From TrEMBL:
Record domain Tr-type G: where: 1-179
Gene3D superfamilies: P-loop containing nucleotide triphosphate hydrolases (3.40.50.300), Translation factors (2.40.30.10)
Entry keywords, A to Z: Elongation factor, GTP-binding, Nucleotide-binding, Protein biosynthesis
Stated family: Belongs to the TRAFAC class translation factor GTPase superfamily. Classic translation factor GTPase family. EF-Tu/EF-1A subfamily.
Pfam families on file: GTP-eEF1A_C, GTP_EFTU
Keyword field contains Lipoprotein: no
The protein's name in its UniProt record: Tr-type G domain-containing protein
UniProt GO MF annotations: GTP binding; GTPase activity; translation elongation factor activity
Organism of this sequence: Pan paniscus (Pygmy chimpanzee)
Amino acid sequence: MAERERGITIDISLWKFETSKYYVTIIDAPGHRDLIKNMITGTSQADCAVLIVAAGFGEFEAGISKNGQTREHALLAYTLGVKQLIVGVNKMDSTEPPYSHKRYEEIVKEVSTYIKKIGYNTDTVAFVPVSGWKGDNMLEPSANMPWFKGWKVTRKDGNASGTTLLEALDCILPPTRPTDKPLCLPLQDVYKIGGTGTVPVVKLFLGTNAGFNVKNVSVKDVRRGNVAGDSKNDPPMEAAGFTAQVIILNHPGQISAGYAPVLDCHMAHIACKFAELKEKTDRHSGKKLEDGPKFLKSGDAAIVDMVPGKPVCVESFSDYPPLGRFAVHDIRQTVAVGVIKAVDKKAAGAGKVTKSAQKAQKAK
């Protein structure tokens, strides 16, 4: 409650409502730079990102600047696999003059240019001028912006158009879920509830947040970033290391072998070493440019061998996408993003098997 009273979000918050078409869960992610790992936790669970940019003079410019949070959040959303995007141009009531068409067009042009560079197809992105404070174009069309003729998106799965932010949410395409894969649950939080025992709170890949009770496992043995799964069907295993394709986004110097920043992958937040720089590649085509580069700098793409500082479960992006993409943090900013190509799993790293699972195996 305290963070709400101060007008900020510290951890992710879930807000639910129902439209005429969908049950919508809003994952309210923090926008502050120091809380970016919590923002990543929220974003990694989303089917669609709603990027809210402030239209007020100075606010928008700060967010879209080289180190601004608008840029970083859009980039992280795309990297974490959120390919559907809606842009809400907020605080239109505070432009000069209020509800300025010119200001809106300036913002749309600049945001479009940036998200296109990241990888989004702007034809599929709905831009909506809104005022959350006044309610303009949130649920019903606003009389204050007669110049706005509505948004349109063009996509192979069906075109859509509308005027309000609510209509844009109703036009989100339901994603396909990898329901044929073995059960795999990255743990987001662990609670000790009286009379219940240890209760991890997890992200189900089917799209549902759920809690479950684990018997005979101490709360000390379970932590955020652990992965639970089926002990009989491709069980989660500890990674000794992994090979990844990374893109260096924003680092003030040079990155050499031995560099050890913090890596955010699914719910895990761990130190991880760049053990070997194997090759430098073209960031667009993926073609090899150089074997064994001595260093990497901003703008470079490379294949890198990485070694985690603590036990962690990750998977190749091709097998389990949510466990195979990551962001790299250092000096209070995202310095790189990447996808995992291959994982070297520890032979004895299958983790704990619960007593109930052991009994089930013996009974067969």
